[in-house]
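User: Quick sanity check before I run a bigger batch. Here is a single chain. Can you write out its predicted 3D structure?
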Amino acid sequence: MSVTYIRQATNEDLPEIKKIIADAKAYLKKQGVDQWQDGYPSDQNLADDVKNEITYVLIIDGKIAGTAALWQGIDLNYLKIEDGSWLNGIEARYTAIHRIALSSEFRGQHLSEKLISGLLTVSRTLGYHDVRIDTHPDNLGMQHVITTNGFDYRGIIYMHAGSAKRFAYQLLLQ
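Assistant: Done. Predicted structure follows.
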């Protein structure tokens, strides 16, 4: 039986996080999804996330298998939603899962559920009941991961001042 948990990332984890994100960018490109093909997230974005203590890593038997940022508070990209609405309004108190990726070494093992479950636990432990996430309209794999983890589709948001259309999802925790 493998030992699996999530923990907050450290600066020592940055090389592996950068590798996982680079692999994810290549995987998306191979799938024909233009998400993350414009330099985002940059190495600086990833370093800032670790510095701001919002990056978490999924550990499987001592190895980093995945990474994600767990934003706390209002995400400016979520203030405007089209063709839907947030259940608790645009300025509710929530966490948002961003920059989620699994290592190519662990792809196909359905570990995204463990990573998201851990992030939901962290969110709830921090006192948040509302969790939000978004993905590219062409990223069918991530849409499947999101909905099978209990999130409901809420509408369309635009990242980076309107240039990147994303499907938005939400999950309310008890």
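The chain has one domain: 4-172.

User: Great, the batch can go ahead then.
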